[in-house]
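User: Structure please.
Assistant: Input sequence and predicted structure:
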Amino acid sequence: MGQVLRNEVPTQETWDLSSLYQNNDGFYQTLDEVVKSVTAFNNKYVNQLTEIATIESALKEQGDIIIDIIHLSTYAELLYSTDTTDTNSQKVAAQFSTSYGKIAGQLSFVESEILQLDEDTFNALIKQSEFPKYLSLLKRQKAHTLHPEVEKTLATFSPTFGAPYEQYNITKMLDIEFGTFEANGEEIPLDYVSFEGDYEVDSNTEVRRNAFKKFSEALRRYENTTAATYNAHVQKEKIESELRGYDSVIDFLLESHDVTREMYDRQIDVISEELAPHMRRYAQLLKRTNQLDTLKFEDLRIPLDPTYEPDVSIEGSKEYIKDGLSILGEDYMNMVNDSYDKRWIDFPQNKGKQTGAYCASPYGINPFIFISWTSKMTEVFVLAHELGHAGHFNLANAYQNVYQADCSMYFVEAPSTMNEMLMANSLLKKSDDPKFKRWVISSIISRTYYHNMVTHLLEAKYQREVYEKVDNGEALTAPLLNEIKRKVISDFWGDTVEITEGAELTWMRQPHYYMGLYPYTYSAGLTIGTVMSQRIENEGQPAVDDWLNVLKSGGSKSPVELAELAGIDITTDKPLKETIQYIGNLVDQLETLTDEIE
């Protein structure tokens, strides 16, 4: 599993990148043209952005350049992520990274000059512009903006500042060798993709626990290198936050989310306290139905009923997806069907492929979905999740300009997790058989809620602890990071779960820590997604229409305004508490169904 080479996988299961560029030569040619056009743009507009008409003209021209940059970066990322061992893909990614610093440096003057406008002119610009939300957010940064030459230097250095994330991925995907592990009398090959896609959820206890032990041993050999890499990243963020005059790293990183610190802290604190009791009950059910003497950390991802876990083929997933998402309308389903038929999805598990799943939605081009298909039902939920991103940005890109298409990170996971809830609601209607219902509900908890509101929430809590230590002047070492992570996990699960040696290394597995305050946004999105899916379930088409309008709004509104369009008030803890209560009700149903079955 996970050992097949990229050139051995069926072409039909891979994505087709030709809507971006026909081949690498097309990429290199466009990159050269963009570098030249940026130089010409710089010569035309530098030191000229004092009048509203000139600024609007410059922003429109820069918008076309930004679209080209998005296409270039997307192609480089997609090509590399499916096979990190391929030297041509490595070269494409490296060439883009090298060129991007020069491009960003030459474009930095635009925002610097706009930020030098006086108050009246800036307000008039916002009022008259085609890009009011973008400019309003830019204006808020005025107090934290540095001298234009400093901003240009920082922008030029951006590839260097991104080096820790690049080094993290190289260590993770190319340097760590996992070898084999022994289980049931045989030696089984292990790598990142096979562990996270197969062995971590394997219902055979010996296979699962031995795989975890071997996986953890391999990670531990690189814990000091990975800690030093992560420390370089967060210390860079700390330095920039101080240069820009923020009170803390978190305040600096939260600026772009367009939400309050209270909203950030609420997600972490309320879930940590109020969701934990429900998830501990779920953990006890896992122990009971799988007949385990002790429930260990590495057992938390297993199915509730290992005898009832149907395989789902790629072809078979289409029917599940259609049943779940067709309520969103014909246009939305056309996008879903095109994703399959026009090869917008990359399904294979192959050696060198990165872990996880994501959707890239380059402006003006079709979306691309990255997934490693394991034939488990959980992958149908993952695919529905990524199609949620695809549907969101397909609409946002169509209805918004490039400056206002991307929404705040706080909201970005709402459309994806909402799709998971639609899938769950659809599946629950298929049968009243107790084993089937238990399987569906346990799938909702183990995939949707465990992944988004436990795994990522514990990442967020860990991350908050890390930044507090960095703000206090501490450097990060592997023992310190292990200690923080172990405590976060232990506090959540209490004595319901044995926190095995190796659980503390989970921080080494997540790329999210190199993406700002990304982890908490999964629970924020799922809170909105849960409440919205219930609105759709109860109200039908009017709620669907509201939701599609939200998706079309892209980044033209704040997260609070987007949620308000959906009829949800996220300025209070009511939606979050309703979501936690809903999860508690799901666990209640699982307990009742298990009593019936047994």
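The mean pLDDT is 94.
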